[in-house]
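User: Hi! I'm working on a homework problem where we have to compare a predicted structure to a textbook description. Could you give me the structure for the chain below?
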Amino acid sequence: MKKYIILFCVCLSLFSCNSANDCDASAENRRTDECLLIVKRIPSVTDDRFDYRGINPITQKKCDCNSKRSDLWWAKYKEQIEIGDTIIKKKGELIFSIHKKDTILSFNFECDGKVYK
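Assistant: Happy to help. Predicted structure tokens:
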């Protein structure tokens, strides 16, 4: 019985570690993603993934912005993205931007109330 109590306490301490470390790791993980896209196709409203397709503004080649790491972060802003907008998330940065004809919307990565830049 003591073994189970000790095992439970060890597991509990591992899962109750400071969430800031998890947020810091998540932020660093998301820095590696990149999305440069002029939107030509918008995913369905029922699709939770960030499956936008279009043209890379630099290479002029077809591309998409699928990312298992960042698409839940980016998907928060789906309602603000329209065909013709340019989506920019540069590698090494934690800013997701939507460039419209007359406006730029920029969003920093946030985790547990902390804004990462």
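For your comparison, note the following. The chain has a mean pLDDT of 85. The first helix runs from residue 2 to 15. Good luck with the assignment!
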